[in-house]
Write a structure and sequence with these properties.
- The structure holds two protein chains of two kinds.
- Chain A is built from eleven helices and ten strands.
- Chain A is of the alpha/beta class.
- In chain A, the strands form two sheets. In chain A, strands 6-7-8-3-9-10 form a six-stranded mixed beta sheet, sandwiched between helices. Chain A has a four-stranded antiparallel beta sheet with strand order 2-1-4-5, with helices on one face.
- In chain A, a hairpin with a 3-residue loop joins strand 1 and strand 2.
- Chain A is globular.
- Chain A starts with 6 loop residues before the first strand and ends with a helix.
- In chain B, helix 2 runs antiparallel to helix 7, helix 2 crosses helix 9 and helix 5 packs across helix 7.
- Chain B is built from nine helices and no strands.
- Chain B has a single domain, classed as MetI-like (MetI-like fold), CATH 1.10.3720.
- Chain B is mostly helical.
- Chain B is elongated and about 70 Å long.
- The chains are: A alpha/beta, B mainly alpha.
Chain lengths: 257, 216
């Protein structure tokens, strides 16, 4: 094993343009450490989801390099790369014609694991996201609540035990109570699993609560990477609006109490 | 002679012509599905082809069937036998609903489902067979159902070029100005269309997205 903590994911001078002209990401340099949870924070259209999709090559950069485990994503076999990276999104994207069990088993099955190993893993990973196997394995996505679907989506992303997990506003569509519940469980999970997680959000509070570091994006550019405490203290102009919004909410809450 | 009497007297002929009719429809539908489904899949992969192929198909539909039978007559091998000609024409008519529904069904798969599938590392082939086709299957069968019912009807025209089928009775009845003879062709054809509609409808309902079952 290499003793130096090599970056799990690295962006080197990455630019992404669509149709050759509109630039969605410009000259991005970002190194994501192994085992950390990096929050990509920004408004809609800031390029955070685009950045996420460049990691598993759902999108291909126009210029520069994206390295996963030290290897350029263009050198990876794209199918191998994607099965090596878990992916959870806001709408969960569960297969409506698959039961919970079959949804979660997807990647292990594609990877041709032994059936017994798949069954054990499905059980384990459903337990991990708080869904008892006996009660949920036979259900179909349309028999689940939004929060339960998100949990299944997370279980599916974790099933093949990938070292990297990409999450695109996974809790964005949930009601506030369910969201808070899942955020807390996410913190637990993150501690026990120690995976490299890249998490897209537009919610400052979520970024501060869940992230080890926060990468702030604006208009296709990376404005800086901050630890949560640094973020709150940062005099940076692009950070200020977020901190102010966060403080304003806090104040209203405190004055009401 | 009343209609039941006529049918009783011509039982054998009714059966033979019904058999011919079934054969014309069956072979045409098999061909239409074998060509139409892959074509619909190709359209979902290359949207640029969409207006071209669906347009060409739409134009097909506007050609009166009798004219189409006539137009295909000079085609070598096909034009040599009436049943080949009829099958080709019927296949061309049946193609549009099959192609269009295959395309529509695949295009109707939710974007997040498709995105998750790709992101999980499904190959394009796995995406097609494990996600797109199963989720589109009831829409595809709906297209096959429409096409089959239309084909049962249009196939009666095939008798005009001597390809046989229940149209024989209809054309003969028209020439004889005898409603019983017309009905001897029209009623079995209508029953055939209703049966096809019922059976394919049942298949379609069994393919609704989530199988309705508590346990498997």
């Amino acid at each position: 094993m290499n003793p130096t903590p090599a970056a799990a994911i690295e962006f080197v001078n990455v630019t992404y343009r669509i149709n050759g002209n509109r630039t969605l990401i410009s000259d991005l340099n970002l190194s994501i450490r192994r085992g950390e949870t990096l929050m990509l924070l920004g408004r809609s259209g800031s390029g955070k989801t685009t950045t996420l999709k460049l990691i598993n090559r759902l999108l291909a950069q126009s210029d520069g390099k994206v390295l996963v485990d030290g290897r350029s994503t263009t050198d990876w076999d794209v199918i191998r790369l994607r099965r090596h990276i878990g992916y959870a999104i806001q709408e969960a994207g569960l297969f409506p014609h698959y039961s919970v069990e079959k949804n979660v088993a997807l990647v292990p099955r594609l990877e041709r694991w032994e059936p017994a190993r798949i069954a054990a893993r499905v059980r384990e990973v459903l337990q991990l996201v708080g869904l008892p196997y006996g009660e949920y394995s036979d259900r179909y996505p349309d028999q689940l609540s939004g929060g339960q679907r998100q949990r299944v989506g997370l279980a599916r992303a974790l099933a093949a035990d990938p070292e990297i997990l990409l999450m695109d506003e996974p809790f964005g569509a949930l009601d506030p109570i369910t969201r808070a519940e899942l955020q807390h469980e996410f913190l637990e999970l993150k501690r026990t699993l120690s995976k490299t997680i890249v998490f897209v959000t537009h919610d400052v509070a979520e970024a501060l609560m869940l992230g080890d570091r926060i990468a702030l994006m604006d208009n296709g550019k990376l404005k800086g990477v901050f630890a949560p405490a640094e973020f709150l203290r940062s005099p940076d102009d692009s950070v200020q609006p977020y901190v102010n919004a966060f403080r304003a909410t806090r104040q209203i809450l405190n004055s009401g109490a | 002679m009343s209609l039941p009497e006529f049918l009783a007297a011509h039982k054998r002929e009714v059966l033979t012509l019904s058999g011919e009719h079934l054969w014309l429809v069956g072979v045409s539908m098999l061909l239409a599905v074998a060509i139409g489904v892959p074509l619909g899949i190709a359209l979902s992969r290359r949207p640029a082809l969409r207006s071209l192929i669906l347009g060409a198909n739409n134009i097909m539909q506007t050609i009166p069937s009798l004219a189409l039978f006539g137009l295909l007559l000079p085609v070598p091998w096909i034009g040599a036998r009436a049943d080949r000609l009829a099958i080709l024409a019927l296949t061309l008519y049946a193609l549009l609903p099959v192609v269009r529904n295959t395309y529509t069904g695949i295009a109707g798969v939710d974007a997040p489902v498709r995105e998750a599938a790709v992101a999980m590392g499904l190959t394009p082939r796995q995406l097609l067979w494990q996600v797109e086709l199963p989720l589109a299957s009831n829409v595809i069968v709906a297209g096959i159902r429409t096409a089959t019912v239309i084909t049962v009807g249009v196939a009666t025209i095939a008798a005009a070029i001597g390809a046989g089928g229940l149209g024989e009775f209809i054309f003969r009845g028209l020439a004889m100005v005898d409603n019983n003879v017309i009905l001897a062709g029209a009623i079995p054809a209508a029953l055939m269309a209703l049966c096809a509609d019922f059976v394919l409808g049942a298949i379609q309902r069994s393919l609704v997205r989530r199988p309705l079952r508590i346990h498997h």
